[in-house]
Design goal:
With 447 residues, the protein is an all-alpha fold. The chain contains 19 helices and two strands. The two termini are 42 Å apart.
Length: 447
């Protein structure tokens, strides 16, 4: 077996090539990509659960300090996503997947070391939490890489499954950390980092032997740089704050929020359900976007998310954890579906631009390649900016709790934000139907 797994010829839009070779190779790369991305999300959200066990481990931290430990990984993860996106073009998708997997050993090792000693200074805890942001970068490189493997007609489903497999890492870590931390008679927070290391090593080995680089994925900064100049790159980035930012922000804060809103119960054990249903809803959002148009699905998502916030407010007012949890689960489902639909809109928008170039006499192959590279860059930009929502939401809860003693103010602020996101989506993509996420393929455009 060749250790330099590079594919020279790749034409997924060719039906014959796709049936004979493309689908099999793309599926193999997708499966391995999901494994690494899943572990990336697991590492990214480790601190969302570890903070619950720090007081019992002897750490004396304020509520605001705990929320900072939850928020900082999201801030750093958002910053890492843009360079991770371009790393695929620079080093190759398979090569970078191996490297990005091995980098996950840094945050897991630091976490295990720092939480083993209650005398560890807070700044060191914060530094260790910041390195967990490396896991957030994995998503951007994985999505950008997989987008090259699939034809336009299948991108929504493929990207949705890829993202969902990664997002499930959040639910897994929030479900398993309470188990591994409380193994035996005591509380060993270091286990939350140590338990993932063998799986990280395994994922790197599998990626090395089973994934491929594509020569079509080249470091063309001229073409990719055009994505920064496109208005729709920034509009989609803004909308992604509302969808993915909500998913990752609420996922990170949910265990601590439940712990503070219902302190007399062990309700935080149910926190994993939010990330679970949100992750499973993501491919559904992609499929619905393929059928109905991403802008429509995104608009519906924001409306349902607003309803979820209203239900959570009612649950707080009545002191009903069941209503509070159920409403948040609705919010998570809507944010997951919105993640899939907004991500599907990005390649469709750039394909539509390529179709316009074809009508003006552009070379079809060059237009397709340029559209893919601009789309991959736009995906990285949107994923980076959108992830900043994962920082804003925990900090919003922290400020609300510090100033008012309740999370109600933060929820009202999020409710207003969903109105703004819905209005922006309507203005740019529904008002005059300028673009839809169910864009025709380049093949159809040539007819």
């Amino acid at each position: 077996m060749s250790l330099r797994r590079t594919i020279e010829h790749w034409e997924p839009e060719d039906e014959g090539f796709w049936r004979s070779t493309g689908r099999r190779v793309a599926t193999r790369n997708l499966v391995n990509s999901i494994f690494v991305e899943h572990l990336g999300f697991t590492v990214w959200l480790l601190w969302s659960m570890v903070v619950l066990y720090l007081p019992a481990a002897g750490f004396e931290l304020t509520v605001d300090q705990l929320f900072w430990l939850v928020a900082v990984p999201n801030l750093c993860g958002a910053a890492m996503r843009l360079p991770y996106t371009f790393a695929v073009a620079l080093f190759g998708g398979r090569n970078w997947t191996v490297v990005s997997a091995l980098l996950l050993l840094i945050p897991t090792g630091l976490l295990a070391w720092c939480v083993s000693d209650p005398s560890t200074p807070y700044w060191l805890l914060l530094t260790a939490a910041a390195t967990a942001g490396l896991g957030g970068g994995n998503f951007a490189s994985s999505m950008a890489n997989i987008s090259y493997f699939y034809p336009e007609r299948s991108k929504g489903a493929a990207l949705g499954v890829n993202a969902a497999g990664g997002n499930l890492g959040v639910a897994v870590v929030q479900l398993l950390v309470p188990v591994v931390v409380t193994v035996g008679a005591g509380t060993v927070a270091a286990n939350a980092g140590l338990v993932w290391m063998p799986l990280i090593l395994l994922s790197a080995v599998l990626s090395f032997f089973l994934m491929d680089n594509l020569t079509v994925v080249k470091a063309d900064f001229v073409s990719q740089g055009r994505a920064f100049k496109r208005l729709h790159t920034w509009v989609m980035s803004f909308l992604y704050i509302g969808t993915f930012g909500s998913f990752i922000g609420f996922s990170a804060a949910f265990p601590l929020v439940i712990n503070r809103a219902f302190p007399d119960s062990k309700a935080s054990y149910f926190a994993f359900l939010g990330a679970l249903v949100g992750s499973l809803a993501r491919p559904l959002g992609g499929r619905l976007a393929d059928r109905l148009g991403g802008a429509r699905v995104t608009g519906w998502s924001f409306a349902v998310m607003a309803l979820g916030v209203c239900g959570a407010l009612a649950g707080l007012e009545r002191g009903s954890f069941g209503l509070f949890l159920g409403s948040f689960l609705v919010l998570f489902v809507a944010s997951g579906a919105g993640n899939g639909s907004t991500y599907r809109m990005i390649p469709a928008i750039f394909t539509t631009r390529a179709r316009k170039e074809l009508s003006e006499g552009a070379d079809p192959a060059a237009a397709l390649t340029r559209a893919k590279r601009e789309s991959a860059a736009a995906i990285g930009i949107a994923s980076s900016i959108g992830a900043f929502g994962g920082f804003l939401i925990p900090r919003g809860f922290a400020v609300s709790l510090s100033e008012t003693g309740t999370i109600t103010t933060a929820l009202y602020l999020f409710l207003a934000a969903y109105g703004v996101f819905a209005a922006a989506n309507w203005w740019f993509y529904l008002r005059r139907r300028v673009l839809t996420a169910r864009a025709p393929s380049l093949a159809a455009a040539r007819v």
